[in-house]
Amino acid sequence: MAAEFKHVMLMVENIDATVKFYNEGLGLPIKMQSPGWAELDANGTTIALHFAQSSAETGHSPILSFHVDDVYKALEKLESLGAKLEGRVREPSFGKVAAVRSPDGHLLSLLQPVAVTANA
Fold this sequence. Notes:
This protein is an alpha+beta fold and 120 residues long. The chain has 2 domains: 1-61, Roll (2,3-Dihydroxybiphenyl 1,2-Dioxygenase, domain 1); 68-120, Roll (2,3-Dihydroxybiphenyl 1,2-Dioxygenase, domain 1), CATH 3.10.180.10. It is built from 2 helices and 8 strands. An 8-stranded mixed sheet has the order 2-3-4-1-5-8-7-6, with helices on one face. Strand 3 and strand 4 (45-51) form a beta hairpin.
């Protein structure tokens, strides 16, 4: 299966102010909002806002986020094409996550979501 594009993510210092900027300034509807994460609907494309402590992490190019079936296989393929892993693969409760730089320096987030099993 091809990777599934999920959203464009912006690292921001103030979720509330950024949501207000895009919602009131551009009329983008709020899909969801919490202290560390918010999503806005940009005519079918989600703009995700992720809280970042320092300005060193904010104000850079957007992060393209993809869901993949197998994060390690995706990394192997992307690295063979010139990508570089940023940090390590993390395994929070919702899946496996990796940050990768494309050959020209753009940041991609790869998420292998935890498989949901039906309760018997």
